[in-house]
Amino acid sequence: MIIIKTKEEIEILREGGKRLAFVLNKVKEKVAPGVSTWELDQYAEKLIREMGDYPAFLNYRPEGAVGPYPASLCVSVNDEVVHGIPKKDRILQEGDIVSIDLGLRHKGLFTDMAMTVGVGEVSPASLKLMKTTEKALGIGISASIAGNKIGDIGHAIESFVRPHKYGIVEVLAGHGVGRAIHEDPFIPNYGKKGTGVKLVPGMVIALEPMLNNGTKNVTIDDDGWTFRTADRKKSAHFEHTILITEGEPEILTLLR
Ligand code: MF3
Ligand code: CO
Fold first, then answer.
1. Is 101 helix (H, G, I), strand (E, B) or coil?
2. Atom of ligand 1 nearest to the CA of 239
3. Which atom of ligand 1 has the smallest separation from the CA of 175?
């Protein structure tokens, strides 16, 4: 069921999104060679709790998951696509690219955001992969206009990505968000124009393209969480929570 958020809920999601963007940008500033992915997680959790909010991923159990997620932040390095579990002995190295993905619950409502950042200096190929993925998210947001359909978002992203020959991950997708971390609808990063559910003002959705510098296929590690590219080439991931309005979409996970 697709939930249309009330004015009051939208106000809370706006504040939550602003807080989430603040925290994730702070975490981004901590990304450097020698830092463990666990330190990033601890820092994210500390900042969220200091604001009186809650880390949304900690103990969250998505459909089909092996168990509750054991951390606040997902940290996915290089060929890891999403849902990498932070670890004390996973030390970031110069040239790595790392997706940091965080959810926040503010006054009972959820927002979701991710970005991929380079560790120190990264290769031109990695830079291009990250830039293109961020642009793909922007393209998806621009297509998120009331009256358009879910397939129009996927189509816009897919058409933009095609000339770059990157693999678009298909088994994971954007999603409704707000009263829960994952709500309907499922929002693939590919699709056919004019298909799927119609976008209506008051819908809140998370868009999250994942682009691979190779095959679109992914595998899951023995930990049951970490999605990884099947050919072990690098992957990038960007995500915003947005509000469908009468006019331009509003990015809720924005620094204000
Ligand atoms: N942003 C992630 C997603 O939409 C949320 C992961 S929740 C977790 O898939 F519990 F799996 F970490
Ligand atoms: Co998400």
1. strand
2. 1
3. 4
Q: Global pTM?
A: 0.98
Helices (H) and strands (E) in the chain, counts: 4, 15
Residue 60: CB within 6 Å of ligand 1? yes
Is the preceding peptide bond at 185 cis, omega within 30 degrees of 0?
yes
Who contacts 129 (Cβ-Cβ below 8 Å, separation ≥6)?
97, 166, 211, 213, 234, 235, 236
Does the beta carbon of 250 sit less than 6 angstroms from any atom of ligand 1? Answer: no
pLDDT in tens, 174-225: 999 999 999 999 999 999 999 999 999 999 999 999 999 999 999 999 999 9
Task: Specify if 2 maps to a domain.
Answer: no
110 Cβ below 6 A of ligand 1:
no
Please count the structural domains in the chain. Answer: 1
User: Which CATH number is 139's domain given?
Assistant: 3.90.230.10
Regions of the chain where pLDDT drops below 50: none
- For residue 81, which of 11, 201, 188, 168 has the smallest C-alpha distance? 168
In short, whether 62's Cβ falls inside 6 Å of ligand 1 is: yes
